[in-house]
Write a structure and sequence with these properties.
The complex is a heterodimer of chains A (183) and B (282). With 183 residues, chain A is α+β, with helices and mostly antiparallel strands. In chain A, 52% of the residues lie in helices and 20% in strands. Chain A has a 4-stranded antiparallel beta sheet. In chain A, strand 3 and strand 4 form a beta hairpin. The longest helix of chain A is centred in the middle third of the chain and has 66 residues. In chain A, 16% of the residues are buried. The N terminus of chain A is likely disordered. By secondary structure, chain B is α/β, with parallel strands linked by helices. Helix content of chain B is 23%, strand content 32%. In chain B, a hairpin with a 2-residue loop joins strand 9 and strand 10. In chain B, helix 1 runs parallel beside helix 3. Chain B starts with 6 loop residues before the first strand and ends with a helix. In chain B, 45% of the residues are buried. Classes of the chains: A alpha+beta (183), B alpha/beta (282). Chains A and B meet through helix 1 of A and strand 6, strand 7, strand 8 and helix 4 of B.
């Protein structure tokens, strides 16, 4: 095999350009310039796109974190508020001036009124009293004495009913008053 | 026909025949020989300067062009070395390229051929830095006749007119490499001999005569070897399509290696030899 054949893959000489119709195939500089500008623009756009994608992912991640954290916080807050309300209620019930109120109620009864039920409303600081009096006058006297006590203010009759079935015709009534409001 | 790979019609124009090949498919290995033909021409007396006449060939081509009018194809015409003159244009300082280089090439032809060269159309190839450049010249009437066969804005379109040396060298230039090598293109009654080394052209000689076989080639080489620098080498790449046999022989110091065409599918090396010159342009 000749040396020329052995050099098939050696560096290739430039082609002969002797065409009488087609122009020599020179480097198309304007086209290459446009291609270079297009490539630079494409790279810049790709870089910008990547940057925007990164920012978008960061924002989405942040929003996701906030969104995920918010419901538990709301739940915790609601639960805490509920527990706080419960605790406050218990504390207020424990701190009711029971002794003072019972003493005032016993003092006002005078032997003609019997207590049937006490319903304190801690939130409203209202004591609802269901009792039975010997007669209407005894009921009025009871309410007057209760209103004069230091333990209650704004004592008034809510309802009353004469027990006609009973031989002595007692009066069953409901009264309420504010406790702890007056100094 | 695909817009991406339009048909190509390759034509070899010599003083003795006009051979054409219609190619379809993609370039390279995907090319397929779809149609072919050879039109024999009546040899005419050599014109002044020893170059064969081209009028009969242009007339035949005009008839062929009329037959294929309207076909969407690109036509390439490969010109026999009978119709082409070559010259090596040495490097010159102070030229600014383009028209100045071409004028310098015309000047070189004028120094060799005298005033006859004024009616020639000249082309000048590129080259490596500080290397001689190959120039070619054909009759302006030949180029006008070829262009007249394929009017502009009509189909088929004349896409290329190139000398045989250009088509053959570009077809096999990867074999040239950097080592000194001779390239011999043998046709009936003509041989074109070129030499190059390290990618530089050292000689181009287009001779009329009888160059039918290795003995005549060796005689030509013995004469031309003195035109090139020492160490010119003795490897000779030969393309002689009119010879049926494959030449891989040695005469004296000269080792001849036949160039094998990268032929498309459908090409028969035995029957389609007249197409070989045209198919070099693939």
């Amino acid at each position: 095999m000749t040396r020329a054949i052995r050099n098939i893959f050696a560096m290739t000489p430039l082609p002969l350009e002797l065409d009488y119709v087609s122009a020599p195939r020179r480097l198309p500089w304007p086209g290459l310039a446009v291609l270079a500008v297009a490539l630079v623009t494409a790279v810049a756009l790709a870089w910008h796109y990547r940057d925007v994608q990164g920012k978008l992912a960061f924002l989405q991640a942040s929003l996701g974190l906030q969104g995920a954290a918010r419901p538990p916080r709301q739940e915790n807050t609601a639960r805490l508020e509920s527990e706080e309300r419960q605790l406050g209620l218990v504390v207020r019930q424990l701190t009711l001036p029971w002794a003072q109120m019972v003493d005032a109620l016993e003092r006002a009864s005078g032997g003609d009124v019997a207590m049937l039920q006490l319903q304190p409303d801690v939130q409203q600081r209202v004591l609802r009293v269901t009792a039975e009096a010997k007669d209407t006058q005894a009921m009025i006297d009871y309410l007057r004495r209760l209103g004069e006590s230091k333990a209650f203010t704004d004592v008034h009759l809510v309802s009353h009913r004469i027990q006609a079935d009973e031989p002595t015709h007692p009066v069953q009534f409901v009264a309420q008053g504010l406790f702890g409001a007056a100094p | 026909m695909s817009l991406l790979s339009p048909e190509r019609i390759l034509i070899a124009l010599t003083p003795f025949e006009l051979a054409y090949a219609r190619m379809t498919g993609a370039l390279g290995a995907g090319a397929r020989l779809a149609d072919k033909g050879v039109l024999a021409l009546q040899p005419q007396p050599a014109s002044e300067g020893g170059h064969g006449p081209w009028h009969a060939g242009v007339a035949a081509l005009s008839a062929l062009a009329a037959d294929i009018a309207g076909r969407a194809a690109r036509v390439t015409v490969v010109l026999s070395n009978h119709f082409v003159r070559y010259a090596l244009v040495p490097p010159a300082e102070g030229l600014r390229g383009g028209a100045e280089d071409l004028a310098y090439a015309r000047y070189c032809f004028g120094r060799i051929h005298g005033e006859r060269s004024q009616g020639w159309e000249v082309r000048l190839s590129g080259a490596e830095n500080d290397a001689a450049r190959v120039a070619s010249a054909i009759d302006l009437g030949l180029l006008q006749g070829l262009a007249g066969c394929f009017p502009s804005k009509a189909k088929p379109r004349l896409a290329s007119v190139q000398p045989y040396l250009m088509a053959a060298f570009n077809h096999w230039r990867r074999m040239a490499g950097r080592e000194p090598v001779w390239l011999l293109l043998a046709e009936p009654q003509r041989a074109c001999l070129a030499h190059m080394s390290a990618g530089r052209w050292n000689a181009v000689h287009n001779a009329r005569g009888d160059f039918d076989g290795p003995e005549q080639w060796a005689e030509l080489l013995d004469r031309e070897r003195h035109r090139v620098p020492g160490g010119a080498g003795t490897d000779v790449l030969v393309h002689a399509p009119h010879r049926a046999e494959i030449d891989e022989s040695q005469v004296g110091p000269w080792q001849f290696q036949s160039l094998i065409l990268r032929a498309p599918s459908g090409y028969s090396p035995l029957e389609d030899q007249p197409l070989a010159m045209a198919l070099c342009a693939l």
